[in-house]
Amino acid sequence: MPTELPHKQVAIVGVGWSGGIIASELAKAGYECIGLERGSERKVNDFIMQKDELRYAIRYELMQDLSKETLTFRNDQDMLALPMRQMGSFLLGTDLGGAGIHWNGQCPRFYPYDFEIRTQTIEKYGEDRIPDDMPLQDWGISYDDMEEYFAKFDETIGTSGEDNEMTAPRSTEFPTPPMKQTKSMKLFAEASESLGLHPYISASANLSEAYTNPDGQTINQCMYCSFCERFGCDYQAKSDPLITVIPTALETGNFEVRTHSNVREIAYDGDQTNGVYFTDTRTGEDYFQPADVVILTSYVMNNTRLLLQSGIGEPYDPESETGVIGKNYCYQVMASAQGFFDEQFNLYAGAGALGGQVDDYNADNFDHSDLDFLHGGTIQCTQTGIRPIATNPVPPGTPTWGAAFKEASAHYFYRTLSLGSQGASLPYRYNYLDLDPTYTDSHGDPLLRMTYNFTEQDRNLAAHQSARLTEILEEMGANEVFSNPDIGDYNIMPYQTTHNTGGVIMGADPETSAVNNYLQMWDCENLFVVGASAFPHNSGYNPTPTVGALSYRAAEGILSYLEDPRPLAE
């Protein structure tokens, strides 16, 4: 029998950005919370003098141990899903702070169009523009409703940036100025302007100057050291949960973190939950944590998996198109192009979110009347810093070994610029998540199965963006430009982006969504499921600021529920 622990008012499953935000807001309000984190404890001092590319970027020190738990993947229902055996298309974080530790720090806001995408698409282009197999839906909330929560997340992390007419409107200024503009960024901006576009310096959680947030937590100034993605910041200059929301929650005395606690089931009586079951990953002991309110704030995949394992909500069936748990899994549609130059650029210095971008081809900022896709994507010239092990750009056709390879590698190391487009991923009837019928994890629980492939919508969007990237690089003066406009089928390898979304989507109708706009489960009113799992589709942007904004809104709803338990939206 599991050992029953002392009762808590709130149990939070997963302590990253979402869990940390909710813990800080509830703990400040005086509620007793426990955060159950299946990874180990992490502190900011763990990352001092840890610029070790081999350890963190190549051997994935901060990532999930796939020998103990992974997921299975297939492109379609006719394929046998097989386990992902090594980190590939995306990087599943672990430990206290979650993926918020190893993120790059890019901080764009989703568009008003994103939150009401079905309504606005039909109003402008007609209902026939939405394919029958694309379950596109509004989010059950508007950008105007969300704007104050975006502003609160910006204030918490100290976002550095500058306004631009092509981005979502803001009620407040950026807390800190934009980052430095490098030579490559300036060249990108000049070329973009000459093409009639609207470039700007990207919004960043790698701060341009030291900043103290409203909770009294200080984030330092970025040193442009190039060790952001896959790394914790040893300067404490990249806003992450360990230096912002988690200490804020702990300082109240109302928040306890219990690490090495792998939640495997949510207790559910068909109406409400009264706690969660978890296993101590060090001892193998089983525990029951009773609570008045349970909040799932683990990564996208695990939020969905826990609901399916616990029998909460109706699993999605792509054949009948009924059910909601596992529905609308979306990813990101990436396109890229490389330009090879005569002149050199100082590319060793960089930061995770250092870059310039244009959004003229994002969302519905451009006319789609004669195009064969919806939405779009941002176009970026980033300077994240070139680290020696993983950086070896040479033009296609260069020998892959020997003297010619070495000569080209040395020549182009500082003479290659890459542009990328991060495109929206819209839902498809047969892209979904469910439990694998064959494979289990180290505890004997079924793995999550991901069924996903790129659609014609995705391929057409990628080809369009690839052409735009080529135009800009040619305008920048590259001698040679190489791109791959045909993305083909999705593959679990190589790395593309960690921007997984969907599975526990939000909306205004319990028939087509799992949670309401406070991220409260329709089928279990004292259970909230928070994170990118709530996105009905993925935008042409990084998801973290929208996750942060939704977390602050969810925290507001949870506080209201704790004061007066009830469904928060009808």
TrEMBL record:
Residues 427-550 form the Glucose-methanol-choline oxidoreductase C-terminal domain. It holds the Pfam family GMC_oxred_C. The keyword Transport does not apply. InterPro entries: FAD/NAD-bd_sf, GMC_OxRdtase_N, GMC_OxRtase_C. SUPFAM superfamilies: FAD-linked reductases, C-terminal domain, FAD/NAD(P)-binding domain. It is an enzyme of class 1 (oxidoreductase). Its EC number is 1.1.99.3. GO terms for molecular function: gluconate 2-dehydrogenase (acceptor) activity. Belongs to the GMC oxidoreductase family. PANTHER family: LONG-CHAIN-ALCOHOL OXIDASE. This is Gluconate 2-dehydrogenase alpha chain. It comes from Geomicrobium sediminis.
